[in-house]
Design brief:
This protein has 394 residues and is an alpha+beta fold. The chain is built from 15 helices and 16 strands. The strands form two sheets. Strands 1, 2, 3, 4, 5, 6, 7, 10 and 16 form a nine-stranded mixed sheet that branches. β12 and β13 form a beta hairpin. The radius of gyration is 22 Å and the shape is globular. The relative contact order is 0.15.
């Protein structure tokens, strides 16, 4: 495939359905400047853990001099609605695009990006290719994947996921390719003051009501033992980790793929201290875990697992949020990306909402004409944004 539209250089595309088949050195050559989530070994561990459960596609783009200039990563994942705020609208829309989707609320999606990480981690090009050109090239690649015989079962919807506000302008390239923007629940982001050296420093910046709330959380959870888990401990605890994670998935309004927690031992071995993996124990039994990656000066929270039978009594989830913040402060981070869900609880700690967009295209042309206007009208459920800080901090 070559592409010279919109001023982008002519390129050649190398496309594979397994990371084991791509040219490792070429991928790594480009990925040096990319998100760590696009690094070869990180993706290798995920593909191996998810074998048989998901399909993956990898693209390496070469310039006219046959040098690697870009990479893109795609997953085929099922989006399952278990009762989200969008369910009624999607069911109504389903009458126009096929009753099966409306009935099952399960849609197979071709995704540019990683459904297991928040953010735009689906492609990267070396300097000289603008973000608008990058997204245009990715959209053309998705069209090729969609039209080719690459899937055992066809994806109904194409998605470019998690575009941050500063990329909205560049994402106009996607709208030019018939993708429609969908504003999802906001990503809750917390900025940390350099003056906070520990949890006491943070607590001192809070107003009286919020300080009382933090003390209440810590007191309620005082029976919990919280500690970092080693690679060996993660590996031996994998069945319990999966059971705890599955409890969270079963309560989620929708699931986008189902990650196998066996990947964490491989990731921990790779990332070492840059993967903060914490276990929450009660009387020696693992009752919860948190996972978060260090990306520069940011702690990027990924998944948690919780024993919900014990959550209310011991406040496990609230304690997790405080522990994540404490970990970030101790590591000198300047920002925490808490992710979606539980917006109110995260707002209570000082996180603020940042809107992010999916760009969505139905593979059926007629259906896509119905989908676009509908998606543009959808808005996340509102919540009360609070500031826990003293007035001079607000």
């Amino acid at each position: 495939m070559t592409n010279s539209s919109q001023g982008s250089p002519a390129i050649r595309l190398s496309l594979h359905d397994s990371i084991h088949m791509i040219h490792r050195e070429d991928w790594m050559h480009v990925a040096k400047g990319a998100s760590p989530y696009l690094k070869y070994d990180h993706l290798l561990a995920l593909e191996d853990a998810m074998r048989g459960a998901m399909d993956f596609h990898y693209a390496i783009y070469y310039c006219e001099q046959n040098q690697p200039m870009g990479i893109a990563y795609f997953q085929v994942a099922d989006l399952v609605d278990n009762g989200s705020a969008y369910r009624a609208g999607v069911q109504k829309l389903g009458k126009g695009i096929g009753g099966r989707i409306a009935k099952e609320m399960k849609v197979r999606c071709l995704v540019n990006g990683n459904v297991f990480h928040c953010g735009d981690h689906g492609s990267y090009f070396k300097p000289g290719v603008s973000d608008e050109q990058r997204l245009s090239i990715v959209a053309d690649t998705m069209r090729r994947l969609d039209k080719g015989c690459y899937f055992t079962s066809k994806a109904s919807v194409l998605i470019v996921k998690d575009i941050w506000p500063d990329e909205y302008s560049a994402a106009s390239a996607l709208e030019g390719k018939a993708f429609a923007p969908l504003t999802m629940e906001p990503n809750m982001v917390m900025h940390l003051s350099p003056g906070w050296k520990d949890l006491d420093g943070y607590t001192e910046a809070l107003n009286a009501k919020s300080r009382t709330r933090i003390r209440s959380i810590l007191k309620r959870a005082e029976a919990l033992e919280v500690r970092s888990l080693s690679t060996k401990e993660i590996r031996s605890a994998t069945p319990m980790l999966q059971a705890l994670f599955d409890q969270v998935l079963e309560r989620s309004p929708f699931t986008f793929g189902r990650m196998r927690t066996s990947v964490y031992s491989a990731w921990k071995e790779q990332w070492q201290g840059s993967l903060c993996f914490r276990g929450f124990h009660l009387d020696g039994k693992l009752v919860g875990f948190t996972s978060a990656f260090v990306l520069g000066d940011t702690l990027d929270v990924q998944y948690v697992g919780i024993d919900y039978a014990l959550n209310e009594q011991h406040g496990i989830y609230q304690r997790m949020l405080v522990d994540l913040m404490e970990c970030a402060i101790e590591k000198g981070m300047r920002r925490i990306i808490f992710g979606r869900t539980a917006e109110q609880a995260k707002s209570n700690l000082g996180a603020v909402p940042v809107d992010m967009r999916f760009y969505v295209k139905h593979r059926n042309v007629l259906a896509n004409k119905l989908v676009g206007p509908f998606l543009r009208k959808l808005r996340p459920v509102a919540f009360e944004q609070r500031s826990p800080f003293k007035k001079e901090m607000a």
